Amino acid sequence: MHTQVGIVGAGPAGLLLGQMLHLQGIDSIIVENRSREYVIERVRAGVLEQGTVDLMIELGVGERLRREGLPHRGLYLSFAGARHYLNLAELTGGKTITVYGQNEVVKDLIAARVASGRALYFNVEQVAIQDADSHRPEITFQKDGREDQIECDFIAGCDGFHGICRPSIPPGSIKSYERDYPFAWLGILAEAAPSSEELVYTFHHRGFALFSMRSPKITRLYFQVPPDEEIDKWSDEAIWDEMLTRMTTDDGWKPNRGPIIQKSITPMRSFVAEPMRYGRLFLAGDAAHIVPPTGAKGLNLAATDVMVLASGLAEYYTRGTMRLLDDYSATCLRRVWKAQRFSWWMTQTLHRFPGESEFDYRRQLADLDYLTSSLAAMTSLAENYVGLPLDVPLT
Fold first, then answer.
1. Is 317 one of the catalytic residues?
2. Rounded Cα–Cα distance for residues 211 and 243 (Å)
3. Which residues touch 298 (CB under 8 Å, ≥6 apart)?
4. Which of 194, 293, 316, 351 is catalytic?
5. Strand (E) or helix (H) holding 265
6. Is the model's pLDDT at 395 over the cut of 60?
7. Catalytic: 289?
8. How far apart are CA 28 and CA 3, in angstroms?
9. Per-residue pLDDT tens for 255-298?
10. b/e code 6-40 from CB counts within 10 Å (16+ = b)
11. In angstroms, rounded to a whole number, what is the distance separating the alpha carbons of residues 209 and 294?
12. Are 15 and 30 in contact (CB under 8 A)?
């Protein structure tokens, strides 16, 4: 087989890239080692920046998002028993965020891919990258017991943190920067109507907690736990007791209780690989970087990566120049590191770290008091949360 762009991974990054290229008339083949059902049902983040929402609408995959997504004009920071509202829209000239599950994004993108008639292969095995530094890199894999290979002009590695694309780059040609955090998130989905129309980020003496939602009938909740915590140790009753202890405010607000339909532990890490390119292999999304979920940047960074990559590929096929592709890694990494900074800042502001004293706790309360009383501080948070502008020229 031959294609212009071989895409490894059918998550949001790979599917978004495939849709962008399709609309530019550029052929691509997507291969994914998981099943279609696994890719769709894997519950991940659900906060979309304004730019990601605009992109999906522009790509023709935003109809259900506009109908079923939950736009938020602001969020709450809760500490010392009180919630404080930050109006993101007023602080950013009208920009908002939208709650819409990543699995819903993937459903929409798979439907668009199928409708396009472009190739999409699930359940492939033994995927490997060959000759990435040549002008004809290849993707080899097995499907239904048969060996196949795809000769490509370019390869997009969109296969996540544990994928095969980044390890395909020779060690001397890539460098990793990473940080593991001394806590994780215990998260649940509950059949309970959300008790707030906006997200609530909570800083409590017992640790961080977050109130979110997935629909008008489903609440999404998290709280901080040790990094080696086992989910089986937590009964549903114990989870609700801890959630309500951390989140209930002095005015009586608290999450609505309901049956827990899913619970899991999410580890916390920061990771960046530099550069995000080797020869004609380009890394995008979680294959190149991971952020702690506190700042809601993971999927949105992936969307920005593939916007930059698609623009560079379009320039190559229309003008024959590699200018934007040559700048791809540097362009993306400027935004990636800003997102890493913001995600780290949100994380250290709202979590209790092991070994911290009462002095540290009081200092964090002072940080939050300043944040919610300073227009400059609130504006900085809002600008980062709704998504920084893409500060590069695109074709």
1. no
2. 9
3. 44, 45, 285, 286, 290, 291
4. 293
5. strand 260-274
6. no
7. no
8. 6
9. 999 999 999 999 999 999 999 999 999 999 999 999 999 999 99
10. bbbbbbbbbbbbbbbbbeeebbbbbbbbbebeebe
11. 10
12. yes
The whole-chain average pLDDT of the chain stands at 95
Question: Could you confirm whether 201 is annotated as catalytic?
Answer: yes
DSSP label of 189:
E
Whether the bond between 275 and the residue before it is cis, its omega within 30 degrees of 0, is yes
Q: What is the CB-side half-sphere exposure of residue 340 using CA atoms within 13 A?
A: 19
Give the CATH class of 2-71+100-179+269-354: alpha beta
Query: Which listed residue (76, 201, 222, 316) is catalytic?
Result: 201
Question: Where does residue 380 rank: exposed (0-12), middle (13-18), buried (19+ CB within 10 A)?
Answer: middle
Alpha-carbon distance 101 to 374, whole Å?
32
Q: Which of these, 32, 36, 24, lies nearest to 7 by C-alpha position?
A: 32
Q: Which of helix, strand or coil describes residue 154? A: strand
The pLDDT of residue 129 is above 60: yes
Catalytic-role residue among 22, 72, 204, 351: 72
Tokens of 79: 């500490």
Query: For residue 134, how many other CB atoms are within 10 A of its CB?
Result: 10
Secondary structure (H, E, C), 85-103: EECHHHHCCCCCEEECCHH
Q: For the chain, give the longest Cα–Cα distance.
A: 64
